[in-house]
Amino acid sequence: MIYNNKADQKGIGFEYDVSSLFQSQGYLTRRGVPLSYGNDATDIDVLGIVFTNPFQGHRIICDCKNKTKAKPFERIFWAKGLGEFVNASNVFVALNKTQWEIIRFAASGGVKILTSESMSEYRKDQSSYGLADGQFYTHYEQKIKNAAKSSSLLNDIILNTKKLYLHKNPYVAINICMEFLTHIAKGFQHGGNHSKDHYDALKYLACELTVLVGLQILWISSDVLGLPEKVRREHISSKLTYGELDPGTARNLINTAKELANEIIKTSVPKAMMPKDVDFGEIVPPPYTSSLIGLIERALARPNAYLSMPQHLDFLLFEQGIKGRDYTDDEIRSLFGYTLSDEKFKVSRNILSFVRESCGLDWKLMWSKVENSSEGLKPENKNEEESKPYTRLKEAPNQVKSEGLRPENKEQEESRPNERLKDALKELGSEGSKFEKQDQEANKMTRNVSNETNVKGKKSEHGEQIKQNYKGDKEVKSEKN
């Protein structure tokens, strides 16, 4: 891998090399994952996550120090403690080179040492993709940092997104993801008012949060595995509604607040002007609860198709989406052992459909020709690059929303780099999303979700949402409970 300066090569570049190594072994990898505790904070240099049957999640971490005076014993103790804190399955320390006695000492404490030499031996002969590609995303990260300075909301989302990789409650984490994605979707609707760095940051966050949604679905599947169907659905709905709180505790807090508010009104408002009792209403599940339960039911019915779904989202969104790189079937097969037509890739579309319909995220707008490549619109000068908004998007917003920006001529159509991504997302057009047709058993499970009740025992106002997901696929008939 080639970097612009020695600092990148020794620091960030070394982390990317480790990230690429773990990726080649089948992990979803991320760099610089923040870990906060009180007022203190640290970063995990490289985090790897993989799921195995039956929905068992495994985390590995690596502390990377590519310096002459790396203080290996200090790094070993540090990494060991950090691994215990995040419940890592394996802990690594990556050094440029070291002595055998240090490797043996680390092994006695359950820490594995990686050197530049051993990394070249372990790594498979394949290129890095997605966020493990340091040659591309080292520069892209600078765009995100620039955009964070211009918007406090964007900065808050950027700071908190990577923290979700270590969040201990997947139900809370997915609620946060969905809230952030809703803000991102609104940002795209006003794309003509943003600088290029801001728009690129929106694209990055939309992709990263969608990968996180897929990851939380697997963690939730692990949590509910083995529960009876009815109990499983009630458990998911309750956890999405109340988060970290016990449902009874949450209801008691609401009732206490209501009684206090009514008491204050009685003592401070004249009787003739006193309003009716204050009522805070019911606590209901998020509007996407039924759809999410449907996805989890599908995952539990076909675990082998879903276990590697986050890695596939990483490839589709960060490699073919943001980078706009085209791949042949043979190249994709060399990376994964199968092509985009395989069922394991198709299930990723379910996640993209879920995000689109629940958060209003327009994938067609994101991948329109005007912003398909990392370069985007080429300005006439450098100053214009930093400040010029997306003029073409601003001039034709209706066209973008309805059909995407079309190429100006046939030659441009033939050279468009993200055709494979559009093929992979072909079911996300104006007709609405369609989940995969092959899995009839999963369809039956999802139809049952339409008749689920909310935590108060009343029929959910979102019960028909799953039916809409299948509109145009086949008629969905309600089944008797």
Number of helices: 24
Task: Tell me, briefly, the overall form.
Answer: globular
Low-confidence stretches: 1-8, 369-417, 427-481
Biggest beta sheet summary = 5 strands, mixed
- Structural class call reads alpha/beta
Structure keywords:
about 475 residues, 24 helices, 5-stranded mixed β-sheet, alpha/beta
Describe this structure in words.
With 481 residues, the chain is an alpha/beta fold. It is 54% helix and 9% strand. The protein is built from 24 helices and 5 strands. It has a 5-stranded mixed beta sheet with strand order 1-2-3-4-5, sandwiched between helices. The model is unreliable at 1-8, 369-417 and 427-481 (pLDDT under 50).
Summarize the structure.
This protein is of the alpha/beta class. The protein has helices at residues 6-10, 12-24, 72-85, 100-108, 116-122, 134-148, 152-161, 170-189, 196-224, 229-242, 247-268, 289-301, 303-306, 309-322, 329-336, 343-359, 363-366, 382-387, 391-395, 397-403, 410-414, 419-424, 440-449, 465-469; strands at residues 28-37, 40-52, 56-65, 90-95, 111-115.
Topology overview:
Layout: H1 6-10, H2 12-24, E1 28-37, E2 40-52, E3 56-65, H3 72-85, E4 90-95, H4 100-108, E5 111-115, H5 116-122, H6 134-148, H7 152-161, H8 170-189, H9 196-224, H10 229-242, H11 247-268, H12 289-301, H13 303-306, H14 309-322, H15 329-336, H16 343-359, H17 363-366, H18 382-387, H19 391-395, H20 397-403, H21 410-414, H22 419-424, H23 440-449, H24 465-469
Parallel strand pairs: 3-4, 4-5
Antiparallel strand pairs: 1-2, 2-3
